[in-house]
Design a protein that fits this description.
By secondary structure, the protein is of the alpha/beta class. Helices cover about 35% and strands about 25% of the residues. It is built from 8 helices and 12 strands. Strand 5, helix 3 and strand 6 form a beta-alpha-beta unit. The longest helix is centred in the middle third of the chain and has 17 residues. The chain is elongated. The two termini are about 30 Å apart. About 40% of the residues are buried.
């Protein structure tokens, strides 16, 4: 039996990729799509209901998993509406504030919710491997992160860069609010030992590059992940949707649980 899904922002960069992959797959059935009226032209060709507001779809799509890669406030609204009907939700939106994540955790007690700032399996493998590398190298190695994205991206640094920085800081016993440096300008003095730089570059149509640097005595180690297309993230989100369909409400799920961490 195919897994029913609803795609938010179906004409957007990620939304259209999700629609194409889900439509071409025997594992999923697109039960409905949501898009703003001014962008919805052509969606009727999909052969499924098209709505301007998610709450107009949910009553007729019981059990369908909603997939949302839109914007922080929209994604939070999606979660609120889905929680009222018990529909599972997969969210890949970045830039959520601490308060918004806290509300997601609360809503996850009412309906299964999965959130990840990066749906790439490769990136999430890095999340697990980098602390091991940090411990092997030790504190003699300074750590910095750069990330590159297309010029349409609205948040900086990326949610992925923030996550990578957090796991490295935690591995070293630091707090990012104490050691994070998000850009240098002017006469800033020598780099403190307890510092972790995170730097954002924007331009062109770059899907997403992340590099973690370990600067040591006499050598440098660079660990880079490059996303070649948005299908990478869309496939991860669909994999999350398939997994979430078998989960119960009670906690905010992440890639850690999906990958068996």
């Amino acid at each position: 039996m195919s897994i029913p899904v609803i795609i938010m922002g179906a004409k957007g960069r990620m939304g259209s990729t999700l629609v194409n992959l889900a439509t071409d797959s025997d594992q999923f059935s697109v039960r409905g799509v949501v898009e703003r009226a001014e962008y919805s032209s052509g969606l009727e060709l999909l052969g499924c209901p098209v709505a301007y507001d998610l709450q107009d779809l949910l009553p007729s799509c019981k059990g369908a998993t909603v997939i949302d890669f839109t914007a922080p406030e929209v994604s939070l609204s999606t979660a609120r509406k889905a929680a009222r009907t018990g529909n599972p939700v997969v969210i890949g939106t970045t830039g959520l504030s601490a308060d918004q994540l806290a509300e997601l955790e609360t809503l996850a007690r009412e309906t299964p919710i999965f959130w990840s700032p990066n749906m790439s399996i490769g990136v999430n493998a890095l999340v697990r491997v980098l602390p091991m590398l940090e411990r092997i190298l030790g504190e003699a190695y300074d750590m910095e992160i750069t990330e590159i994205h297309h010029h349409h991206k609205k948040d900086a640094p990326s949610g992925t860069a923030v996550k990578l920085a957090q796991v490295l800081a935690q591995s070293r016993g630091w707090k990012m609010e104490d050691v994070g440096n998000y850009g240098r300008q002017g006469i800033v003095g020598a780099r403190p030992h307890e510092e972790l730089g995170v730097h954002a570059l924007r331009g062109g149509d770059v899907v997403g590059d992340h590099t973690v640097y370990f600067f040591g005595p006499g050598e440098r180690i660079e660990v880079t992940h490059r996303a070649h297309s948005r299908e990478n993230f869309a496939r991860g989100a669909l994999r999350a949707a398939a997994w979430l369909s078998g989960q119960k409400a009670g906690q905010l799920y992440s890639m850690g649980q999906l990958l068996g961490a």
